[in-house]
Amino acid sequence: MKSYDVAIIGSGPGGYVAAIRCAQLGMKTAIIEKYSTLGGTCLNVGCIPSKALLSSSHHYEEATKHFEEHGIEIPGDIKVNLEKMIGRKQAVVDQTTGGIDFLMKKNNIDVFEGLGSFKDATHITIEGKDAQEIEAKKIIIATGSKPSTLPFITLDKERVITSTEALKLKEIPKHMIIIGGGVIGLELGQVYRRLGAEVTVIEYMDRILPTMDAGLSKELNKVFKKAKCNMMLSHKVQSVERHGDEVIVKAENKKGEVVEFKGDYCLVSVGRKPYTAGLNAEAAGVKLNDKGQVEVNEHLQTSASNIYAIGDVIKGAMLAHKAEEEGVFVAETMAGQKPHIDYNLIPGVVYTWPEVAAVGKTEDQLKADNVEYKVGQFPFRALGRARASGDIDGFVKILADKTTDEVLGVHMIGARCADLIAEAVVAMEFRASAEDISRMSHAHPTFAEAVKEAALAATEDRALHV
Ligand code: FAD
Ligand code: NAD
Question: How does the cofactor bind to this protein, according to its record (predicted)?
C-alpha cells in the first residue's frame, strides 16, 4: 500500500493548490480526483469556461454594436458560430487542465483517478481507474460543491439546466428564463443575451446580486435593462414545467399575483451546495453541519484532528481564490507555520461587462455595525481613458472610516474592475487611509485613475475631475 504524508481528495483550485504547497514544503503528497481531468469545478465547468464564453460573446457584441462608432466597417453580416465558440471554450479548458497535470508532475505529486472515500481517518479507498487503498498521515478534504436547485424543480439537463449544461448548449436559446439573479445567472445571462437570446432573470430578492453593495446592484440592473433583459425582481418561483421544447415558469410577484413565463430553456442558478457524496466522512469521524458543509475550526481542521477541509465544501464564500488561500493555509499549518487569512479581504468579482468588483464592508454592513463612515465616489465617464475606449458606465466607491480615514470597503462597477480591485485589496491589507491612495501617482490615462479620484473624494471631497 502506498503511504503519504498528505493525501488530498478533490483537485479543484483548493485541492491542487494545497497539493503544490504541501509538495513545496517537503511533504510526500497524493491527490485523488474522481474525474479524468484535474482542476475541479473552476477549470472544467466554472470560472474558466464561463470567462471564455464571456470573452467570445463580448467580441461579438463589440463587432455588431460598437465597431461602427470606431469607424470600423465590416461588409456583410456578422454571424455567430456557436459550435466553434463552444469548441474554443473547450480548447481553453483543455489547455488549462493540462497545465495542472504538468504542475502535479513538476512537483512530484502522485495523481489517482477515482472516487476517494474514507475507510478510516488515515486510509482512503479509491474506486475507479486507479482503484486501490492508500494511507496518509494527514488528509485534506477539497471536494467542492454542486449546483443546488429548488425542491419542486426537475433538472432534466436538456431544457431545465444548470450552469454546467449552459456552458455547452448546441443552439442559442430563443428565450432563456434564468432563476436567480446572482453571479451565475448574470454572467451566463449576459452571454446568451449578447448572442441574441431573449433573457428573463427572475430574482427572489428585491435586487440582483443581493449580497453586494446595493449601489452596484442598481447600476448593473440598469445595464441589463438597457440591454433589454427582463429583470423580474421580488418574484418567487413556484413551478417549472417542461412541455416538449417549451419550459413554463410560474412565479409570484409582490402583489401576490402569479406571473407566467414561457421559454425554451430555463437556467436554474440559485446557489451551490457542498459536495460530500461518496466520501464516507463518518468513517473518519469527520462531522458535517446542518448545511451539509464539513465543520472546521479556525485552523480549518475537522472533528478528526489529522483531517482538514477547504474551499466550497466548508463555510464561507464559494470562490476559487478563497479555496486557493485555504489550500495554502492548511499546507503551511501542517508544516508548523502560522499562516493567516483575512476573509474580509477576499474580493468578489462578477465578470459581466461592465465588471463588478468589491472588497471589505458594504454600506449596509457598516450601518448595521454602527460604524461612522464617509463615501467617496467617482464616475468612469469623467475619465479620459473611459471616453477613449467608449466604456463610460459605472463608478468607484470608497468607504472610509469617518474619524481615521481608514479604507473599510471598496465597491466598483465598470470596465476592468476585476483587475482594478487588486489595488483596493493591497491598500486595505496595509490598512491604508483614503488619503494614502489619493496621494499615490496613478498613470494617466488609465481606468485606475477612478480609484485615486474616489479616494480624493472620500478624503476631503477633493476629486479633481468632477
Ligand atoms: P471544486 O472546484 O468544486 O473541486 C472539487 C473537486 O473534487 C471536483 O473536481 C470533484 O470532482 C472532486 N471530488 C469531489 N468528491 C470527490 C471524491 N470523493 N473523490 C475524488 N474527487 C472528488 N469562482 C471564482 O472565484 N471566480 C469565478 O469567475 C467563478 N466562476 C464560476 C462560474 C461557474 C459557472 C461556477 C459553477 C462556479 C464559478 N466559480 C467562480 C466558483 C468556483 O468554481 C468554486 O468556488 C471553486 O471551484 C471551488 O473550488 P474547490 O477546490 O473547493 O472545489
Ligand atoms: P448566488 O448565490 O450568487 O445567486 C443565487 C441567486 O438566486 C441569489 O440572488 C438568490 O437571491 C436567488 N434565489 C435563491 N432562491 C431563489 C428562488 N427561489 N427564486 C428566485 N431567485 C432565487 O449563486 P449562483 O449564481 O448560483 O452561484 C453559485 C456560486 O458560484 C456562488 O457562491 C458564486 O460565488 C460562485 N460563482 C462565482 C463567480 C464569480 O466569482 N465571478 C461566478 C459564478 C459562480
Answer: Binds 1 FAD per subunit.
Q: Which three cell numbers stand for residue 223?
A: 445595464
pLDDT tens-place string over residues 219-254? 999 999 999 999 999 999 999 999 999 999 999 999
Which grid cell is 285? 469521524
Rounded to the nearest 10 degrees, what angle do helices 214-226 and 183-194 cross at?
A: 20
pLDDT tens column, 149-165: 999 999 999 999 999 99
Q: Taking the complete model, does pTM exceed 0.90, yes or no?
A: yes
Verify that 169 and 301 share a domain, yes or no. Answer: no
Q: Convert the pLDDT of each residue in 321-345 to its tens digit.
A: 999 999 999 999 999 999 999 999 9
Range of the domain at 389: 345-458
- Ligand 2 lined by 54 (C-beta under 6 Å): no
The chain-wide mean pLDDT, for the chain, equals: 97
340 burial (CB, 10 Å; 0-12 / 13-18 / 19+) is exposed
- Both 260 and 219 in one domain: the answer is yes
- Strand segments, DSSP code E, in 169-213 are 175-179, 198-202
Domain of 304, CATH number, reads 3.50.50.60
32: CA distance to ligand 1 center in Å?
14
316 Cβ inside 6 Å of ligand 2: no
**Host H or E run for residue 386:** helix 384-389
Catalytic residues: 444
Write the CA distances from 463 to 69, 192, 363, integer angstroms: 30, 38, 21
Query: How are strands ordered across the β-sheet holding 265-268?
Result: 160-161, 265-268, 175-179, 198-202, 230-232
Ligand 1 centroid to residue 25 C-alpha, Å:
24
3-state SS assignment for residue 121: coil
Please indicate, yes or no, whether residues 80 and 194 belong to a single structural domain of this protein: no
Place of cell 459581466: 352
